[in-house]
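ok trying this again, last paste got cut off
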Amino acid sequence: MKQKGLRYLVASATITTALSLLIGGYATLSVQNSQIQVIDSRLNIIADSVRQNSSAPVSAALDSAANQDFNVTIALISSLGELTIINESQLNLVNPPTESVLSQALLSAVTVQAAEDYRLVSLIISGGDRLLLADSLSSTNATFTNNLKRLILFTFAADLIAIALSYLVIRRNNRKLQADSLARMQSFLADASHELRTPLTVIKGYSEMLSKGQISEDSDRENAFARVNSEIVRMENLIHDLLLLAELGETSVPVREDIDFSELLTSFSRDFQTLNPKRVVAMEIEDGITCLGSVDHMRRLIQNILNNISRHTPEDAPVRIELSRSGRKTLLILEDGGPGLPDSSYREGIALLNRFDSARSRDTGGSGLGLSIIAAIVHEHDGTLALRKSTLGGLAVEITL
């Protein structure tokens, strides 16, 4: 449970971080791109004025920048590569750009990385000189850095909130699960204590009567010993059931091997048909269906279901046994024509330590742990267990592996 909770916390933090960075990063980049577009728009307005007044490009650039109140750097680079600043701005343009950058800037505005990054547009004017239009990116970069810091702080705060909320949810769910588990355990202990107390009372009573000589007739003594032996067998079966449940509940990795499920089920079904000659047993078992698991536990699974049918249905009630494969899933259905269960008993996700019907388990001498064992074995094999009304009129047990 702790590992699942830790995985849930990690998943929540990961998802929150990913969403925050995705949305916040997109917003931060959008703001940066918008600011760069504003700078490029200024440079292109001046460049258009220069193109329209090619006879006086420098004057056109200066007039356009002054009229639009654009604080941009205007410079000339001679054919010999000498840089001359015509209009200064906040950008401290010291070294001329490389030839490759100047060529790219002829087509569209480009970013020049220097001591102070800037956007650049270049124009060829008469005499082979180049007119440079540049605007600083310091404000844009500062805004981007601040937004990035805010994004990191927001992501960190969102992660803390997500972890805190997830922790509260997990803690609440764990408390509920623990309460449910405790209630099931208390009910189970009460049932197990009752089942153990009943045969012990019978054994104790007959033992006292036999030791005190209160049973003198040979026939009565034989009956008394027979009752004691039957109750001992009942206790033995109950203890075996409890040990199996304890084994199934261990955290160690169970033994896994390839099982010919079709052959295993067919063998049990034929034995059941032989031992119940008055029943009509319909078998629809596909050949060649295998599964990975414990052979002993799968035998016990089938045996418990068939034993429940034998105990709790009339001896002539029909039975249908079906095994089929659908993709990677195996479906096992065992249904009978008996009286069935109360409507509240038909549900999926049967919890451990539940009974089919505690009253009838006691009436028939069973331990009442059959469904717990079935549910535990199905859970061990990563399957699902569901109970429903049978088409034959009684109970249908559906197991998906």
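PB: full thing came through this time. Residues 351-367 have pLDDT under 50 and may be disordered.
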